[in-house]
């Protein structure tokens, strides 16, 4: 495991920077598509059924953006990185529209933001490669921070270092993904600097 501080930090949004809000069981019930939801929706042929599914998902995401609250420590961590001139990126499986609503609501800015509208969704590596290329940082010098296994898997697939935000819980999939760092609270990220 690398001991030098990361040269860039890539954040997940829901559950990492903002408190979890999306009710995935309700989304599944409303759309009627099995897991993995987003991947199955993306695989649908263009047409009315696909349009209906995305309209439902976007309604849930818009509601979550309006109701979003920052996780404890999120602003402090982002301010710290900015004060150290450490570039930051955001990667999310949400739409660009709902992401921009959330960022605008909280006055958050990133050097680059990649949504599902811009690249294949996590755990695919492409969004992280796009961010690293934009920030001019090799993936091995970047840190992917998220609260779910797809975040860690995306980091692994892209070749970044990884940190899993646990919120004090021990997820059952922890051994399966083996993140480089476990963060009980978001502010624990600061110890890596």
Q: Which descriptors apply to this entry?
A:
alpha/beta, Rossmann fold, 193 residues, single chain
> Which CATH class of the largest domain?
Alpha Beta
Beta-strand residue fraction = 5-15%
What oligomeric state do the depicted chains represent? Answer: single chain
Q: CATH topology of the largest domain, anyone?
A: Rossmann fold
Give the N-to-C terminal Cα separation: 14 Å
Q: Please, how many domains?
A: 2
Q: What is the CA-atom radius of gyration, in angstroms?
A: 16 Å
Strand order of the largest sheet: 3-2-1-4-5-6
Helix content: 40-55%
What CATH architecture of the largest domain do you see? Answer: 3-Layer(aba) Sandwich
CATH homologous superfamily placement of the largest domain = HAD superfamily/HAD-like
Shape: globular
List the total number of helices: 8
Quick recap of the structure?
By secondary structure, this protein is an alpha/beta fold. It is built from eight helices and six strands.
Topology summary:
Elements: E1 8-11, H1 24-31, H2 37-42, H3 48-67, H4 74-83, E2 88-91, H5 96-106, E3 112-114, H6 126-135, E4 142-146, H7 149-158, E5 161-165, H8 174-177, E6 181-183
Parallel strand pairs: 1-2, 1-4, 2-3, 4-5, 5-6
Helix pairs in contact: 3-5
Characterise the protein shown here.
This protein has 193 residues and is an alpha/beta fold. It has 2 domains: 135 residues, HAD superfamily/HAD-like (Rossmann fold); 44 residues, no CATH class. It is built from 8 helices and 6 strands. It has a 6-stranded parallel sheet, sandwiched between helices. α8 links the parallel β5 and β6. α3 runs parallel beside α5. It starts with 7 loop residues before the first strand and ends in a 10-residue tail after the last strand. 37% of the residues are buried. The model has no long low-confidence stretch (mean pLDDT 95).
């Amino acid at each position: 495991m690398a001991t030098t501080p990361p040269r860039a930090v890539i954040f997940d949004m829901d559950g990492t920077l903002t408190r979890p809000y999306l009710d995935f069981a309700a989304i599944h019930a409303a759309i009627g598509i099995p897991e993995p939801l987003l991947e199955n929706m993306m695989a649908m042929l263009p047409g009315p059924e696909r349009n209906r599914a995305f309209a439902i998902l976007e309604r849930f995401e818009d509601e979550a953006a309006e109701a979003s609250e920052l996780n404890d420590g999120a602003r402090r961590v982002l301010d710290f990185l900015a004060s150290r001139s450490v570039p930051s990126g955001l990667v999310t499986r949400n739409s660009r529209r709902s992401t921009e609503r959330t960022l605008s609501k909280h006055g958050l800015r990133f050097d680059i933001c990649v949504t599902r509208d811009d690249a294949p969704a996590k755990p695919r590596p492409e969004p992280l490669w796009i961010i690293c290329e934009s920030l001019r940082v090799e993936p091995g010098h970047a840190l992917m921070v998220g609260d779910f296994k797809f975040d860690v898997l995306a980091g692994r697939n892209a070749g970044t270092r990884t940190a899993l935000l646990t919120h004090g819980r021990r997820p059952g999939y922890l051994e399966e993904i083996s993140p480089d760092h476990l963060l009980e609270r978001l502010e624990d990220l600061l110890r890596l600097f």
